[in-house]
Design brief:
The protein is an alpha/beta fold and about 140 residues long. Helices cover about 30% and strands about 35% of the residues. A five-stranded mixed beta sheet has the order 2-8-7-4-5, with no helix packed on it. The chain binds copper (II) ion.
Length: about 140
């Protein structure tokens, strides 16, 4: 009888422990997927067009001023590309992106930028450029 009670107690502990692990695991994975989807929602995306055309798929990007934000550069092209931000064409460098090898992606952490129509380009193909509109 004492053994049966002990077994019941152990079983209860086991079930509680199991249930606890299961629910915390679920909430952790739900939290993770929530974070990753919100991160990708916030990220600015630009693609270097494949086919050695040396163009980005967008000549205008938008971001909020005063806070860092992620910018994802996808490079399905056969040449390396990067993305750098300047105050204007030929102006002050505000961010210099690492080069991305063919077939690779990178997510830059762009620092907080001032309000304005800024200029972005690929530094080895300056014909790849556009306007980064930063708004308050
Ligand atoms: Cu380039």
């Amino acid at each position: 009888m004492r053994t049966a009670a002990l077994m019941a107690a152990l079983t209860a502990v086991f079930l509680i422990g199991c249930g606890g692990d299961g629910s915390s695991g679920e909430s952790a994975s739900a939290k993770q997927s929530g974070e990753s989807s919100s991160a990708s929602d916030d990220a600015v995306l630009i693609v270097a067009e494949p086919g050695a055309t040396n163009v980005f798929d967008a000549d205008r990007l938008e971001a909020a001023a005063g806070r860092p934000f992620p910018l994802e550069l996808k490079n399905p092209d056969a040449e390396p590309h990067n993305l750098s931000v300047y105050s204007s064409k030929g102006g002050e460098s505000l961010f210099r992106g690492d080069f991305v090898d063919p077939g690779k992606d990178i997510t830059y952490e762009i620092p907080a930028l001032p309000v304005g129509d800024l200029y972005f380009q690929c530094d080895i193909h300056p014909e790849m450029f556009g306007t980064l509109k930063v708004s308050a």
